[in-house]
From TrEMBL:
Protein name: DNA-directed DNA polymerase
GO molecular function, one term: nucleotide binding
Protein origin, superkingdom: Eukaryota
InterPro entries named among the record's database cross-references: DNA-dir_DNA_pol_B_mt/vir, DNA/RNA_pol_sf, His-Me_finger_sf
Pfam families the UniProt entry points to: DNA_pol_B_2
Protein species of origin: Paramuricea clavata (Red gorgonian)
E.C. number: 2.7.7.7
Keyword set includes S-adenosyl-L-methionine: no
Sequence ranges assigned to domain DNA-directed DNA polymerase family B mitochondria/virus in this UniProt record: 279-410
A single GO BP: DNA replication
Lineage: Eukaryota, Metazoa, Cnidaria, Anthozoa, Octocorallia
Keyword Cytoplasm attributed: no
Amino acid sequence: MEKQLQEARSKIIDSLAIYQKEASGWVLDEILHLDLNMAKYTPLKAEKYNKPPIVYRGEDAVDKFLECLETEQQYIEEKLSFIEPMRIENEEEQMFENAINCHICGFEMGADRVRDYCHLTGKYRAAAHNECNLNYSFTGRIPVILHNLRGNDSHLIMQGLGKLKNKEINCIPNNIDSLQFMNASLERLAFNLSKSDADMFPILQRYVESEKVPLLLRKGVYPYDYMDSVEKFDKETLPPQECFYSVLNDEHIADADYNHPTRVFEAFSCQSLGDYHDLYLKSDVLLLADVFENFRNVCLKAYNLNPCHFYTIPALAWQACLKMTEVELELLTDPDVYLFIKEGLRGGISMISNRFSKANNPYVPDYDPDQDSSYVMYLDANNLYGWAMSQPLPTAEFDWLNEEEISNLDITQISDDSKEG
């Protein structure tokens, strides 16, 4: 496979037929997006530390990407190593003295209270337990967020990592696939966010003139199959509409979809297809940054949990459940108890199969007065999953019943919300 990649280095996309013939393990209908382009953006809460996005075009794009990540890591660690002195106003000092609960864990404080503040800006946050404050620090982990990482970019990045020499590679991943949190295309995510408010894209607006922002509030249109050589980056105009045909989807783009890249090409004064390509890549990354930052802010506001510390939405949801309910689950150490509970779990494919039912309804034309009247009632229930998940569940004090207790057990006498069950 490496030999094939080297031979195809000059192309952006190679057809499926070649790789089927060579028994490639790829399963996409149209493969190979070689390491030809990359873009990155690092959003930091303190705006003065944010730097413009980097867009790079070249056959060593993955190597350049990893190089930029290393430079970014050094920059972030250097900034965080300097501790800015705390700045606290008289009003904030009074709030500290009157505070009852720790702003980190939410529990009541005693004499161990301290002033928690941001070491990067010096801004006072709130009162906190001393232990909470010590644990509320930079872990050294810098997550990198990529959309659909598992399906595409990870293959190229792994190839690039294989070239690193004298570098420690940790088996604990720092990269996050945003698709595992927001299971939709970037186009759909950006569209949904733009429907609520165009001002939800502060990062994009920082680097794009305000009158041009609406043109980028959707996923761009790109002639993937047409781009089969790097020489096409030098073309001074967009290719005709038929060149936007997608082999993967087996369809042409609509007139409206073709009008969009035409307007973008003109509005941003693109001098070549390469300029349009770079803008397409840059806008994609900035849109993803805005979409994920919005999602992160929602999670922080609702649960005070940062999704950057998780790898998937189920992991985040599980921790949110434990945090918001304040449930302490008993650790099962008896394998028989564990297996007993596991056997009681229900899941998998769910369906409702309907039998044929004919009503003899006196209010319809084919009513038969010689037969008993009957009716078909349509019932609908909302939020079945939400209802089920809000029902009481066992959390601790699991114990086996003896024979006598089992014989005297009448589960019909146990209420659904009983503290014991």
